[in-house]
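Quick log. Single chain, no ligands specified.
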Amino acid sequence: MVPVDFSFILHPLTNEDIFRKLKFMRNWPSFLVEKTMRMLPPLWTSRITGISSPYNSVEGCFMAVFLTTRQMLQLPPEVVIRKIIAAGKKAARAGAKIVGLGAMTAVVGDAGITIDRNLDIAVTTGNSYTVATALEGTEKAAALMDIDLSRAEVAILGATGSIGSACARILARKVNYLTLIARNTQRLERLAERITGETGLAVKVTSNIKEAVRKADIIVAVSSSAESLIDPEDLKPGAIVCDVARPRDVSVKVAEKRDDVLIIEGGVVQVPGDVNFNFNFGFPPGMAYACMAETMILALEKRYESFSLGKEITVEQIDEINSLAAKHGFKLAGFRSFERALSTDDIKKIKERAKLRLGFATAGKN
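-> predicted structure:
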């Protein structure tokens, strides 16, 4: 087998993801499905070919850890981390010089630090490029929806995580009204103090998700919740949500019931070259999550060193990976919402419906 340059670790988000591959398990009790999955070793899932920039070409592979999001949150962290380390060692045996952590594998424990210490190859969570693309997408969406960032009520859901805190610190330089949302109020207060010290902006903090979301014009959703946190009734007409979280923070019911809000998937990029993932994760050909792309960018650059690790991501890291992405031809892949492409015409219609409903609401008050 031809060695790969990099690997990316995946895992099923829910039992439904398992059933798509292992249909015979669909009628099994949930406890038996999860017990069986926990016993399985990591699995080479597919080879990634065709990634090419003007400077280099690389190949990689997807490696699967068979634990759902719920299991990763409920099992002891050391159990989950051992599974991820085993996947990383298998990737190293396949020749990978760097491994990327996907979805909850990037969150569990200390966000990759222990995994990095137990592997002989580099590790990254992909969080730096995820932040860069999420913010780029949010700013472009705001412009299309005629929302002035300097006047908008902006909220970060999951603000104390590594992605959320980095988003908050960068957005605090551009907005005047920022609310940080998370469960741990002490960590929120510390982050708010840091942001005020860095930017002078007085930041609001709250653990009341519903109340804060209902007031917001723009929400960057990056929690590590296993369940959706934003429901149809939680959003004002014309609101924008950049949902970076996997599983999603925004309920699928929002897509069904609210055609006057803009929900975009954060961190979806076009990969350069004639790329073939040989694996369907719901995107058109050539598109990938930004966390995956960060691993590819570092491999193309031959930067086989651990990059985005731990709960703290620096603005310098974000700027650096964004620059390397541009160098190698990675770019934001337009807008997608609940795995469907959004055109500028789609967004225009959302904006028109929002204005109409806001007009009705104003008329009703008079």
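The chain has 13 helices and 17 strands.
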